[in-house]
# Entry
Amino acid sequence: MRVIVLIVSVLLSIVAGVISAICGFDVFMSITTGMLTFLSVEVINISWLLGGVYFEQHREKKFLDKINQYSMKIQEINNFYYEIERDSQGEKDLFSVTCSKAIDNLYLLLKNASESKKIEISSDYIINVSGVFEALNVTHDKKVRLTFPVSEIGKSIIPSSEDRKFFETIYNKINEKEISDLLILIVLANEDLLNDPQMDLLLEFYAKNSKYECKYILAEDFIEACENNKISTASLDFGIYGPKMLFVEENLHPYKGVYYKDESIIERYTKLFDEVWNFEAVTHNNPKVAVNSGTTSNVGFTPNQFFEDLSNINT
# Structure
């Protein structure tokens, strides 16, 4: 790369010198113009290189600072556990057993995250509602793909506070251009669910906001596609955050979700999603798109307005 830049600098300096001579400059001025052109290009290149080195060193410093911070915490854990074991009142000592299990769980968590590139959670899936979108910072592909399984519609189609927070966050990420496109595949237990007023409102929200694309498919067709692609059908709920992050809900009762960084697994789920998304025989466009054609807007239908209208439906 350095050689290429040097060659370009020389060529530009020659061109500048020739143009100067054509324009009537004397030999001294033409040579001076060529040399100044060469030096200017080199200064710009060196500035660019130094800027790159600075940002790389800054990033490396942040990385090492975090490693040092948590290395100290691990050493403190070792010291704490040493004191706990010294105070142990027997093999089944409550403090000793509880803390040793916590360390075992931490060990398994770190081992799986490092070696298998996955983290399992047993609480609701929003452990850090913004954290999952960090995966989009390390890739140019900022497309997010989500499935939305709906077997029945109860009191609210967006039932939990975590779901509401996610709904609002992803809307904000789109407006902040951190997400380029959002593809939502609604997986319906039956087509009659489209007649529910809550579903109708949700489809209208998707139709009225640009960067949102929504389609729907029947669960039986989606399950068949999963089976053909060797993807588990234990749960049909997953999210793909670019090529670097995947979330899969593996079980609902009791809850179990898994985050994956393994790109081979992410690629399999992405292939499944895109295959189904483009399979027009079983996947259908949002019926509200035709009704609202030409009315899409970044601010046309906000989450606040959506939840307000949703509350009115429920009352």
Notes: Strands lie at 118-121, 143-150, 181-188, 212-218, 238-241, 246-251, 256-260, 283-285. The first strand starts at residue 118 and ends at 121. The two ends are 66 Å apart (CA to CA).
